[in-house]
Write a structure and sequence with these properties.
By secondary structure, the chain is an alpha/beta fold. It has four domains: 3-174, 3-Layer(aba) Sandwich (Rossmann fold), CATH 3.40.50; 179-235, Orthogonal Bundle (Helicase, Ruva Protein, domain 3); 245-364, Zinc Finger, Delta Prime, domain 3 (Up-down Bundle), CATH 1.20.272.10; 425-514, 2-Layer Sandwich (GMP Synthetase, Chain A, domain 3). It has 24 helices and ten strands. The protein has helices at 3-6, 19-30, 48-60, 76-82, 100-109, 132-143, 163-166, 179-192, 199-208, 213-224, 232-235, 244-255, 259-271, 276-296, 299-305, 308-319, 323-342, 348-388, 393-417, 431-448, 450-457, 476-483, 485-499, 528-543; strands spanning 37-42, 89-93, 120-125, 149-155, 170-174, 196-197, 229-230, 460-465, 468-473, 504-509. A five-stranded parallel β-sheet has the order 2-3-4-1-5, with helices on one face. Strands 8-9-10 form a three-stranded mixed β-sheet. It has a two-stranded parallel sheet with strand order 6-7. The two termini are 30 Å apart. Mean pLDDT is 80; it is low at 364-379, 385-426 and 514-549. The structure holds zinc ion (ZN).
């Protein structure tokens, strides 16, 4: 018997990671206020049918006290359900019974009263597989269910459930089971099996299962089939080496701009036989979670993916990381994941490239970022002073600009002292000079094309290389708009008018936008909705992304 069946929870209290759902259902049972139709949705292997069976068992348990919700697991009804031979719990797999004929048959079937119990419970698994006609037939039954009948519909694809069905059911969403709960569950089973498994292996299994408990248990079962004492080495037969435990360390090297250590670690991992394709996919997931954490500070989300120790580690790393930097890391890793498909012969190349890009870019940018940051703070402080002195709006802007110029001089001086990496380009204007004239560009664009002005208003020059002017956008949609030749021509012509030189604009996606630039409102940086928008955009990026897994 598989571990999953052997240790399938028999009571609500044995179910892992489903506390809220179990609690509500228990309440309904205790108060004798159960619905006639339930809809359980969620990924496969997350406990939908397990909960459905416990629920059915509890309702029909002969020994259950009225104010209790747990089944006894000893009475005739409980035992017959546990042994899958109950007449009053009917499990239907809609994947193989999807036609109207079968649902019609079901409609006839529900008319009969339960043979030995109070309720007849029908669990229809994968209910989204029903044909539209079958759904219609089912709907008729759901509209007027006999008092003794309870339907529990389960699905992995909620969006395929017709609204008419959905609206007649009490809906429960089964999210993924968090890693901590999964580890606990696996440890319990290991103990019950009187086996010993190295903690790293348990963690590895939990992580691989991606929140599906059934997958985790089945993997553990496979591994335990070779013996009762399992080391990491034994587990390798079943688990291709991914190096989950190393992803956080590796990303930390990237955060620290340490290309040397990052590359050495990759080399070492490869020597150990770790599949770099998996490793990068996992690193991307880790970086993604870090990025979302930096934006939201939502620790609960981390708990789904990481153990407590790992979360502490991540929080420490995230303390000193800017959104820009973690985003750069995510973008480069995402690119590496995609590029790996293009270079199957040298899988390490795209990753090495990513490391160089991340670390190098940060080295070039970080002094500049610091300058911009201190400059921003300086301006902000000055602004506060100005506001305190109650100057008029126009003088406020004037002062701001003044300070910006003063700071520019300082900025340029500092820059001159650095070894200039971008010296190979013949920069016609400095970025600061471009920024100074940008307000004029916006004004002129506004005169020409109102909608284009809207798009350009959220963009900002972020770099000048020769006669290429990099224009930073937060969102792809806006970037695409400006990339249209007609729009590009308008903007380039105006840029020429303002700066006297032909610049080609190159739109790029970036968050590195100088919020304090005088042509923009200066207080948008910390608005919560801005952050939400960012997360939204980040999630959007991943929705459409193809990640090697
Ligand atoms: Zn019972």
């Amino acid at each position: 018997m598989t571990l999953y069946r052997k240790y399938r929870p028999k009571k609500f209290s044995e179910v892992v990671g489903r506390d809220a759902i179990a609690k509500i259902l228990s309440q309904e049972i205790k108060q004798d206020r159960v619905s006639h139709a339930y809809l359980f949705s969620g990924t496969r292997g997350t406990g939908k049918t397990t909960i459905a069976r416990i629920f059915a068992k509890s309702l029909n348990c002969e020994n259950r006290d009225k104010d209790k919700s747990e089944p006894c697991n000893e009475c005739k009804s409980c035992i017959s359900i546990n042994e899958s031979r109950s007449q009053d719990l009917v499990e239907i797999d809609a994947a193989s019974n999807r036609r109207i004929e079968e649902i019609r048959e079901l409609r006839e079937h529900v008319k009969y009263v339960p043979s030995n119990s109070k309720y007849k419970v029908y669990i229809i698994d994968e209910v989204h597989m029903l044909t539209p006609e079958a759904f219609n037939a089912l709907l008729k039954t759901l509209e007027e269910p006999p008092a003794h009948v309870i339907f529990i519909l389960a699905t992995t694809e909620l969006h395929k459930i017709p609204e008419t069905i959905f609206s007649r059911c009490q809906h429960f969403s089964f999210g993924k089971v968090g890693i901590k709960d999964t580890i606990e569950r696996l440890n319990r089973i290991t103990k019950l099996e009187k086996a010993e498994v190295e903690p790293e292996v348990i963690k590895d299994i939990a992580r691989r299962s991606g929140g599906a408990l059934r997958d985790a248990e089945s993997l553990l079962g496979q591994i335990l089939s070779i013996g009762k004492k399992i080391t990491s080495k034994d587990a390798e037969m079943f688990l291709p080496k991914v190096g989950f435990s190393r992803t956080i360390d590796w990303i930390n090297f990237l955060v620290l701009n340490d290309s040397d250590k990052s590359l050495k670690m990759l080399e070492e991992l490869e020597k150990q036989g770790i599949n770099l394709v998996f490793f990068i996919a996992e690193s991307l997931e880790t970086a993604r979670q870090m990025m979302i954490y930096v934006a939201t500070k939502d620790e609960d989300r981390l708990k789904m993916y990481f153990t407590d120790d790992e979360i502490n580690n991540i929080k420490q790393i995230c303390e000193n990381i800017s959104q820009l930097r973690i985003r750069t890391i995510v973008i480069e890793l995402l690119r590496a994941c995609q590029d790996m498909k293009l270079s199957p012969d040298i899988p390490s190349l795209p990753i090495e490239l990513a490391v160089i890009m991340i670390c190098d870019e940060n080295k070039i940018n970080s002094p500049q970022i610091d300058h911009q940051k201190s400059k921003k703070e300086f301006i902000q402080n000055k602004n506060n002073e100005v506001e305190k002195n109650d100057f008029s709006q126009s003088s406020n802007v004037f002062v701001k600009k003044d300070i910006l110029e003063e700071e520019n001089i300082k900025f340029d001086k500092d820059k001159a002292q650095e070894p200039k990496k971008e010296n190979t380009y013949n920069t016609v204007h400095s970025l600061e000079q471009i920024l100074d004239g940008w307000g004029e560009v916006l004004t002129k664009v506004k005169d020409k094309n109102q909608s284009l002005n809207f798009v350009l208003g959220v963009a900002q020059p972020v770099g000048v290389n020769g006669n290429i002017l990099e224009l930073g956008f937060k969102y792809k949609l806006q970037l695409e708009k400006i990339s249209e030749i007609k729009n590009r021509d308008i903007v380039e012509n105006i840029i020429k008018e303002v700066y006297g030189i032909d610049y080609h604009i190159e739109p790029v996606i970036t968050e590195d936008i100088l919020q304090n630039y005088p042509a923009k409102p200066s207080n948008i940086e910390n608005k919560p909705e801005e952050k939400d928008k960012f997360v939204e955009a980040a999630l959007q990026v991943f929705e459409g992304a193809e990640i090697v897994s």
